[in-house]
Amino acid sequence: MLTRTDARYGKVFGTLFLLYVGAALFVQTSFIVDPSYLHEEERSLFRYHQAGDPGLFAGDYIAAFFAAFPQPYLYDWATRLWLQAGGDLLVWHRLLPLACWLAFLAGIAEMARRIGDRVTLLGAVGLAVAQPIYLHQITSALPHAFAFPLLIWAAAALVHGSVAGLVVLTLLSGLLYPAMTPLLGLILAWHLIGTERLFAKKSLERNRSLLLLAITGALSLWMVHAALQGTDAFGAALAPMQQTEAFPENGPQGRHFSGVFSPLTYVAGKAATQFRWAPDLLSFLLLMVFACVALYGLAALERGSAGRRALVVFGLCALLLGTAVFVLKPFHSYRFLLYPAFTLLPLLFAVGLQRFCWTFRRSLRFPNAATLGLLALIALSFDSFDHKKLGYWWHLGADQQAVMAFAEAQPQDSLFAVWPGSGSELEMIPYVARRPLFVMYKAHYPSYQDHLLAMRARMQALIDAYLATDAGGLRTLHCDWGVDYLVVDREHFAEGYARPRYFAPFDRRIAEIWGGSRRQDFLLGRPDPGWVAVTTQRYRVLDLARAVGDRQADSRESCGPAGTP
């Protein structure tokens, strides 16, 4: 009687939970296919426009910088093949995350089916759908979009005991996202040597396995080495925190994001900010509960089962590699913590919660129904419908689209300048409108000395023009640097606005200029109407040739020679 009643309630709660999962998938997919929603990391992918039109970005410094660092082979080949077949780059970057997202959810479903029942499957998939962190990493359309699909299917290959599957996935990671190749290679080696007792096999079989491991390792090392190769075209390489006195951009107040200097805090913060409320103490307490239930789920799996053995091997390999990277290369360790941990969490939490409810089945009476009910409450606590938390930080509204349309209508070599930063949707001009940009936050990497000096000179020229009190800064930007159009965010000069922001060492220069001038003194706060090519509610696009009196020449000849990067 208890089983029938539990099954009846379980179907009710399961149906409601499935409806929520379906609604979340529908909303999330609508963001993925909507071209007005953009992941901020997509801005670096504009260089692929050249594959369809080699004339685009010819001679552009930022495009040359990005092109100097090749992408993983299969990722690059697939993108170029799509473009050569006449496909649109922006459409490709909609399809790619969708395929990775579905592949990841399919992997979660397969793993849950192997280690549990239908309740486990529904719970694990539902939690993966509900947690924004997965889509946030996938919707970038960069190679790290493949991390979660590769890892979850590696776990599935472990459960099935498929050496061939692990070999294929290890090689695929080298072709798609080499950062995960060391972990997958370590899992393959552990499985062959430990689980399959390599050295207990007969000589011929052992030699075949060793040869397979050696070939896979050699090919993987070759692909990882190719991905790690730097370039001397932009000066001597800089490690984080190196030469910070000469290059403040490389220090804690510079260009690096929080995950570089505080990887553990960054990963915990990424997890906590998934909830609907602010990342406060309650969020972190729930996160701790989530982790404890997941650990209980691992302990509750049947000893000696393929599922438990696979998850333990996966977890130990991830812990070993993550610790090694954290000790040897701490600035690069956050991805080796984030991806493996969150590959396992939804699975183990669903198992742990279900086993917990069954442990107290006499008190709860309907353990499966209780499991699904609690899973539904937990899923609802996540901010599953927030496009920013799903990775699409930027939404191109009417203002941004008007600027993009204007930019796309200009000649191919028209150079635009916008105030750079993580909150500037107009840094998508190269990606959406296919026109070069003078300074881009994403390209301002503090990795090479000459590149930092080049970007520093550009940013200083932009600051002097943007916060100018006379036309001198605008003339320099146009005549010496070749910038044709400067896009002004009107909010920067609105009453009550603190000041435009950027990182060190530019923050000090900005503060000095801003503090030493009156609001009404800034030229771009109220520019001459004759300079303005486009006006929207938020933006003004200034034609710098008009601003410096060079429009009659319809060229930059009267300005003198253009500046260098």
What does this structure look like?
- The chain has 565 residues and is mainly alpha-helical.
- The chain folds into 2 domains: 2-19 and 55-226 and 262-381, no CATH class; 397-559.
- 59% of the residues lie in helices and 4% in strands.
- It is built from 24 helices and 6 strands.
- It has a 4-stranded mixed β-sheet with strand order 3-4-6-5.
- Helix 10 runs antiparallel to helix 11.
- The relative contact order is 0.11.
- Residues 551-557 and 560-565 have low confidence and may be disordered.
Largest beta sheet: strand ordering: 3-4-6-5
Order of helices and strands: HEHHHHHHHHHHHHHHHHHEHEHHHEHEEH
Largest sheet: 4 strands, mixed
Radius of gyration, in angstroms, nearest whole number: 27 Å
Extract low-pLDDT stretches.
Answer: 551-557, 560-565
Count of β-strands: 6
How is the topology of this model organized?
Blueprint: H1 2-33, E1 37-38, H2 49-52, H3 61-67, H4 73-84, H5 89-115, H6 118-130, H7 132-138, H8 147-160, H9 163-176, H10 181-195, H11 203-228, H12 258-261, H13 263-272, H14 281-300, H15 306-328, H16 334-359, H17 361-364, H18 367-381, E2 394-395, H19 398-409, E3 416-417, H20 429-433, H21 449-466, H22 472-480, E4 485-489, H23 506-515, E5 532-535, E6 539-543, H24 544-547
Parallel strand pairs: 3-4
Antiparallel strand pairs: 1-2, 4-6, 5-6
Helix pairs in contact: 1-6, 1-18, 5-6, 5-8, 5-16, 6-16, 6-18, 8-9, 8-15, 8-16, 9-10, 9-11, 10-11, 10-15, 13-14, 13-16, 14-16, 15-16, 16-18, 21-22
